[in-house]
Specification:
Number of strands: 25
Radius of gyration: 39 Å
Distance between the termini: 130 Å
Shape: elongated
CATH architecture of the largest domain: Beta Complex
Largest sheet: 5 strands, mixed
Helix content: 10-25%
Number of helices: 6
CATH class of the largest domain: Mainly Beta
């Protein structure tokens, strides 16, 4: 056991001096002057929505520089200054759409220490040549499927905010563009009011701003209710009366729990015009609701049609 302890002591001592030597070597190397080629990403910001750049913009630039290793290490490893940002709007406003020579070189130098020498860079120029787009405001249409859990239903209209977006493109394309659609989505088993962020469906050579909307899907718990509603005949001539068999029918529907106790038979009407009865030669007429609340769903009438006779009444 003692022998093993001595061996480990030697190994640890050797490793310590090896690490120390490597550290001194690394420091000496960093103090030397190097030439290096560095690939720097380019980020373009501030591109106006109404502007279409005519050329493909380079996503990176290859830069040759010279400086002490420690300076280069500090610039790109410790500080993380590895992206050149080009604000396109500023150059367009200044009517300067070609970055070259001293302009591009200055953007590159800003990413390095003052002691760093810029040797070369490629591409040597960047064209921001552009054309102006036309604009048009178009309504947004929700394109999706919605299902709810049992006993729950949509309790109102699906709301899209904003309800319209601005489309940018050529005049020819905009003349044929009348609406914008959200991306197709399925929303399943909803059981409460829900809000979703949906992107606008992209179209070739069209730019939408904003390119997303918020969609509110109202959902509430529903229950089934049944009421008895009388049938009424309108515009009966004097001395004639329509008699229905039966004279009252059952109307069933789904209504939200919050409205369940607030709805009654007086909220419904089944009105038939006398001329309809005259045209029904078989003595049977189909029923329909002529008045009902707009917040109920799955309405059914039983029976769906009734028999009738037209009686002469005493004057």
């Amino acid at each position: 056991i003692l022998g093993l302890h001595v061996e480990w002591h030697k190994i640890l001592t050797f490793a310590f001096f090896l690490l120390l030597s490597a550290t001194f070597w690394f420091i000496l190397v960093l103090r030397q002057t190097f030439e290096a080629t560095i690939e720097i990403p380019i980020k373009y910001t501030g591109i106006p929505d109404s502007v279409l750049l005519k050329n493909d913009l380079p996503s990176k630039i290859n830069v040759g520089v010279s400086d002490k290793g420690l300076t280069l290490f500090r610039s790109f490893v410790l500080n993380g200054n590895d992206t050149i940002e080009i604000n396109v709007r500023n150059y367009i406003l200044a009517e300067n759409t070609l970055l070259k020579d001293d302009q591009l070189a200055q953007l590159i130098k800003n990413k390095f220490e003052k002691s760093t020498t810029l040797l070369r860079y490629n591409p040597a120029r960047i064209s921001l040549d552009y054309s102006l787009l036309k604009s048009k405001k178009v309504p947004v249409i929700f394109d999706g499927e919605v299902t709810t859990v049992p006993n729950f239903l949509l309790s109102g209209d699906i709301e899209v905010k904003p309800d319209s977006v601005t489309a940018y493109s050529s005049e020819e394309i905009l003349d044929k563009l009348n609406v914008a659609f959200t991306t197709s989505n399925k929303f399943e088993d909803l059981e409460k009011n829900s809000v979703f962020k949906l992107h606008i469906r992209q179209q070739d050579k069209v730019r939408f701003r904003p390119d997303f909307v918020h969609v509110t899907i109202p959902v509430a718990e529903f229950a089934q209710k049944e009421l008895t509603v009388p049938i009424t005949c309108l515009n009966q001539p004097f001395g004639t009366e329509a008699v229905f068999f039966p004279s009252n029918v059952s109307v069933s529907f789904a209504v939200s729990l919050k409205d369940f106790n607030n709805i009654s038979a007086s909220d419904f009407s089944i009105n038939l015009d006398y001329t309809e009865l005259e045209q029904a030669t078989n003595g049977v007429v189909k029923l329909r609701l002529t008045e009902s609340p707009n917040y109920i769903q799955n309405i059914s009438i039983r029976p769906a049609s009734v028999e009738f006779i037209l009686e002469k009444t005493k004057k």
